[in-house]
Known about the structure:
- The chain is 16% helix and 30% strand.
- The protein has 244 residues and is an alpha+beta fold.
- It has a single domain, classed as Thaumatin (Sandwich).
- The strands form three sheets. Strands 2, 3, 5, 6, 7, 8 and 13 form a seven-stranded antiparallel sheet that branches. A five-stranded mixed sheet has the order 4-1-14-9-10, with no helix packed on it.
- A hairpin with a 2-residue loop joins strand 2 and strand 3.
- It is globular.
Amino acid sequence: MGYLTMAFGLPVFLLLTLFSSAHAATFEIRNNCPYTVWAAASPGGGRRLNSKQQWNLNVAAGTKMARIWGRTKCNFDGSGRGHCETGDCGGVLECKGWGVPPNTLAEYALNQFGNLDFFDISLVDGFNIPMDFSPTRSPSGKCRPISCTANIIGQCPNPLKTAGGCHNPCTVFKTQEYCCTQGPCGPTNYSRFFKERCRDAYSYPQDDPTSTFTCPGGSNYRVTFCPNGSPHFPLEMYGESDVE
């Protein structure tokens, strides 16, 4: 509590009042892939999205450490239990936690320092679906659309290849060099592979300067899977019932 008061120069009760009076943000989550994507959100749950379908999600002001991602090759029963090849979150349709790598992530925190929203696309958990993450307001400075639409699965280095996606090296090797869990670390050949193809996206955990974007608090956003309509990998990877 003391830190919050010092960091903002305002009493905590006033901060809470400001956040509570702010408007919730609306996220339009669209599936533009030619196959089914099981969208996942923390907070928010999950939803099956056939090709061209959309899910509107309202998120409370002040929400932080939040993420949206897509799951592929899922099979759920009538009670919402099952499994996904990529992005699975505890074997349930309605996610309560985070997904299992590899999964392309849209991450955000609303109404933070200076009443700014912070958002990014992260490949720190690897890549499974091309993604665009865009504010719905007019672009200005760091408040602009960001995307990762390269053929990462098709070009994935052999040690990082996995069914339906491309792992980040931290997931595979679990060392300080790639995971940055015990102090500072820098780019590697593997992180450069991701960065060269998706310059807007986090390529390793401390890739902050070129990978974090901001918009004024109160903005709304759109997350699009396969924004250019091309999945960049063979549709036979998916069951016939998943391809529209």
